[in-house]
Specification:
The protein is an alpha+beta fold and 124 residues long. The chain has two domains: 1-30; 40-121. The chain has one helix and eight strands; from the N terminus they run αββββββββ. The chain has one helix at 2-28; strands at residues 40-43, 57-59, 63-66, 73-79, 88-91, 99-103, 108-112, 118-121. Strands 2-1-4-7 form a four-stranded antiparallel sheet, with no helix packed on it. Strands 3-8-5-6 form a four-stranded antiparallel sheet, with no helix packed on it. A hairpin with a 7-residue loop joins β5 and β6 (99-103). The radius of gyration is 21 Å and the shape is globular. It comes from Streptomyces longisporus.
Length: 124
């Protein structure tokens, strides 16, 4: 009986340790800034305040992302993490052609997206 009790106690302890590790790692990777998830580049609604609005476009994967129906001035936030070379570019052409603006890691600004047809996330 004593052996079963020890086994049950060890199993409970191991389960608690795994649960705690899972919870800790989820919070450690949570780098949400102004509603933009960590690892993403976000575009906010036209004319909206980045402090009080949520992103309308969220891009996670490296490479070009074509835009549609984005006009006027929008906040764009580069919330990627890692190397300082994790940049985002705003491009006048589709598929990442004719890039005119580079947004550095953890930077944001207000940009006129009327001529912009794609956003490129660059691998660090």
């Amino acid at each position: 009986m004593r052996r079963i009790t020890r086994g049950a106690a060890a199993l409970a302890l191991a389960t608690a340790a795994i649960a705690a590790a899972g919870t800790g790692s989820a919070h450690a990777n949570d780098r949400t800034v102004y509603g933009c998830p960590g690892g993403a580049v976000c575009i906010y609604p036209e004319g909206a305040d980045i402090h009080t609005s949520s992103p309308t476009n969220i891009f996670y994967s490296y490479g070009a992302h074509n835009l549609s129906n984005q006009f006027g001035y929008h906040y764009v936030l580069n919330n990627q993490y890692g190397s300082a070379n994790a940049t985002a570019q705003l491009c006048n052409g589709y598929n990442g052609a004719d890039c005119t603006v580079t947004i550095g890691l953890n930077e944001f600004g207000v940009y006129n997206l009327t001529p912009v047809n794609s956003v490129v996330l660059n691998r660090p």
